[in-house]
Amino acid sequence: MSLGFNVFARAFSGGAGHAASRHWSAQRLTAIVLVPLAIWFLVALLTLPDLAYATVHAWVARPLSATLLCLLVVFLFWHSRLGVQVVIEDYVHHPLALAITVHLSTLLHLLAGGAALLAILRIALGNA
Amino acid sequence: MPRPLSPHIFIYRFGYTMSLSILHRFTGLTLSLGFILLGAWLTMLSLGESHYQWLTSGTMGLVLRVGLALWLVAFLYHLANGLRHLFWDAGLGLERAQARRSAMIVLVTVAIAALLLLYAFWVPR
């Protein structure tokens, strides 16, 4: 494993910080964590008796679902941001346009992820 | 510092396994949009019943339902093909015949799982 990462570090990064190989590892690591988390989310939603306000609200308020939902949001945020960045890098070549689109994507991810976390906490911690 | 980019697809002779790779990107981007939807959905849920009603009923509700169905299929595909990628990253299944076989496994699994889940999703509970 360590041999593999050394090869990637040497081949992919320009040297400083090995940012590219860290990006690569982080995308795989978040993917592995998301496999059980995302399956849990799907199964939990499908096994709820309905998706009406009271049912879903009570489900999110439960400590276990709130905790796992927070984890899901954090890992989805990270995995999605990294993935979108790779796609942008493949198609946007102008340096300034590249920087703007990548930062715009990060901003949108922060907004969605932040709103999701805040909402979960508000629901789980009572009617704040 | 310039990062390595994916070699451009027109360089290669087209093989059907390539469409799986393209689909992986496409479903990934779709799911990223779904992440925004997840944030909106949870926010409306936290704001109270009237907000949640607005998001989940009427025209919005219909859009949400169709979006959710598409998102479900995209998720199943991204999950199945993502596992395939993780095996490749571990150095497994990289032979051409193996990659073709795993491609078929992914497509068949996703098709069956999608039909079953969409049925479970749409049937009134």
- Biggest β-sheet of chain B: count, sense, barrel? none
Largest sheet geometry of chain A: none
Order of helices and strands of chain B: HHHH
Large-scale geometry of chain A: elongated
The shape of chain B, in one word, is elongated
User: What is the overall number of helices of chain A?
Assistant: 5
What is the strand content of chain B?
Answer: under 5%
Fraction in helix of chain B: over 70%
Uncertain stretches of chain B: none
Distance between the termini of chain A: 47 Å
Cα-atom radius of gyration of chain A: 18 Å
Overall pLDDT of chain B: 84
Description of the structure:
The complex is a heterodimer of chains A (about 130) and B (about 120). Chain A is an all-alpha fold and about 130 residues long. Chain A is built from 5 helices and no strands. Chain A has helices at about 1-10, 20-45, 55-60, 65-90, 95-125. Chain A is elongated, with a radius of gyration of 18 Å. The termini of chain A are far apart. Chain B has 4 helices and no strands. Chain B has helices at about 15-45, 50-55, 60-90, 95-120. The interface of A and B includes residues 12 and 49 of A.
Draw up the topology in text.
The complex is a heterodimer of chains A (128) and B (125).
Chain A: H1 2-12, H2 19-47, H3 53-61, H4 63-91, H5 95-124
Chain B: H1 16-47, H2 49-56, H3 58-89, H4 96-122
Helix pairs in contact in B: 1-2, 1-3, 2-3, 3-4
